[in-house]
Amino acid sequence: MSKLQVKNLRISFRTNNGAVRAVRDLSFDLQEGKTLAIVGESGSGKSVTARAIMGILAGNSMVENGEIIYDGQDLLKISEEDFHTLRGHRLAMIFQDPLSALNPIMRIGKQLTEAMILNNRERRRDGKKRFNRMITLLEQNIVGAYAQQGIDNKQEIKKKVDDFKRFLDRGVQLQSVYSAARESLLKAQDHIGEARLEMKRNDAGAVRDVLTRLVKLGQAGCHPYLNGKCDIRFHEQLETLSGLTRGYTARNADKVEECLQNLQEMIDSMLALTEPSFFAIGFCQEHGMADDLPGEEIADINRQAEERLQNEFMADFLLDVQKALIFSAEQTAKSTKVALEQLQHAKQVFEKDSLVEKDCHAAFVHTAAAVDKAIDPMKIEKDNLSYVYRSSMKTNIDRYFKGLTTNPKEEARFHHDTIKHDKLIAHNRIAAGVVPKNLVDLDMAKANMLRDVTNLIAHYSQLLESPITQTVEDAVGIVDYLRQCASDYGYKLSKAMAKHRSIELMDEVGIPEPYKRFKQYPFEFSGGMRQRIVIAIALSANPDILICDEPTTALDVTIQAQILELINRLKVQRNLSVIFITHDLGVVANMADTIAVMYAGKIVEAGTADEVFYQPTHPYTWALLSSMPDLETHEKLEAIPGTPPNMIIPPTGDAFAARNPYALELDFEEQPPMFKITETHYAATWLLHPDAPKVEPPVIVRDRIQRMQERLHTMREGGETL
């Protein structure tokens, strides 16, 4: 499943000498839980693409074409306010230079906790918004489903939905109290480690201060679902520790250590307990059944509470939710038929050789309204084509008709400047270079309009042929979605919990002595440790997508390997989708699932990691492999001759042709298309044309491929992992 889609992206930058074409018609998909490596020399457009995804392009940037689709939104067209909800919370980025990414006069702990608290604030706001929207839609569609059957039970449905909201809110409140107590125990764990650290330093005053706070945290951590079984023993240990704290000296350190060890074991056992099902317990409390629940084992409490919830409310409610989903899907299908007719009519308008502005705007208004109605609001998984239709069409229509006006003016300006330049040269006078033409690509804008309409026609035709199927599992998905939204807006992250999570994150990314490091400044860390801190900050909100912009460039080889291993491990543990940007093909050999090789703003070869490493077909990929150092190559490494082209005036044909020893005459005249090699492997080189001469990769590349294949075969036979 695609997590992120980039389509036909084209980005330029205004300069005094003209527009720099940084990214040219870039397209790729990022799959869920996979790593896409984007590889190329400096200036190839890798970082510009990453910054476009994050919405942090420079002020002189111009997005001339394309879409970046994430969660039913085109990231190129959303507001900065909407980006606040995504950036950091769902999209995170690790920058190349960790020192410049960190505030040099703020402690590391403050930078970590600040990011967490801000992201929690956005998560709560977004959760509340999503919950209110979905619960309103649910009620409306349940009422509509019964009304369709001739049953008017609007008041009954309202009462049932209100009941659901009440016990869901009660469950969130119960969970908040439980979480606060659990947070206190987690922080008490941190204080046990901190107390031991101060005891090693023989700082009696600091030990007394930490132990005093530890006792208070232990008392705040008392909760019937956390320490019901060891409540008496836990309080006894806290009282013992409190007595030892008042007169603490190095002489009674052993007694304190024994007490700390006992508390540590008790807290560990409490934190390992199963979490209560607060959703079900909230229902029982709202309906006066809480006294009948068992008072000992949490598993028994959960089982009985969930049985009552299921039998007395949820079984019937899920059938109503299922009816709502079917009703919403049926209404959407009717709207989809209308939208399909509108689109088929509009297609004739956009197929004309000469577009009429009035007709295009009228077709857009009618189709956009119809497409908006054809979106099923009850579907959690968004229909990206429908969601981005309005913004995409409006952008392309405005761009096309603006270009009709501005292109002649730009042509006239260029012609005037050229004549002026030539006159000055003819009189042996100094003349500034002529700024190249910056024209709107009318053909592309027109093609985009027709593409959007055609794609939706095909999409809607396919949807209408499919039967409407909404199961109880789909209804459970809606209830789970509402529970998650309620949990998001109901959980307020405290500073104490943010500190605990920061210390946990620092430990997770491999920073030793996190309690001590929490209070240090960035300059007190090595380059590798600073990069680990930046990774921890990026992961603090548990994002969906992690963008790594050359995170190992400033590090030595040993630290590089550690950081790469860390990112790989975190990707698996957190099911992250990763975009890894680098200029070194060797860096991504053991971590990328797919690789896109970029040159001069374009992808010149793309495929799985095995395909790009073992069957490379583009001369630029050969050049990157030839220049990649390894331990077994005895020949002199081959440098790539020349320099990248001037992207103010991009080459007419293949941008790599001037540096390519295998270039054909056609490479200098025409840009090669993407030739399909396999279902997953593509390359833009005329050498793949059926009429092109057969050219073998350089000897150094063939030797490397053979060695890599032999090593891979040996490792697989020995049962080793890559």
Notes on the structure:
This protein is an alpha/beta fold and 722 residues long. The protein has 3 domains: 1-104 and 544-722, 3-Layer(aba) Sandwich (Rossmann fold); 174-273, Four Helix Bundle (Hemerythrin (Met), subunit A); 316-465. The chain is 57% helix and 11% strand. An 8-stranded mixed β-sheet has the order 6-7-8-3-9-10-12-11, sandwiched between helices. Strands 2-1-4-5 form a 4-stranded antiparallel β-sheet, sandwiched between helices. Strand 1 and strand 2 form a beta hairpin. Helix 5 (154-200) runs antiparallel to helix 6 (204-220) and helix 11 (298-350) crosses helix 16 (472-490).
Question: Could you name the ranges where pLDDT drops below 50 across 5 or more consecutive residues?
Answer: none
Main β sheet profile = 8 strands, mixed
Structural class: alpha/beta
What is Rg? 31 Å
CATH C-level class of the largest domain is Alpha Beta
Summarize model confidence as the mean pLDDT: 88
Side by side, the strands of the main sheet go: 6-7-8-3-9-10-12-11
Number of strands: 12
The percent of residues in helical segments reads 55-70%
Specify the overall morphology. globular
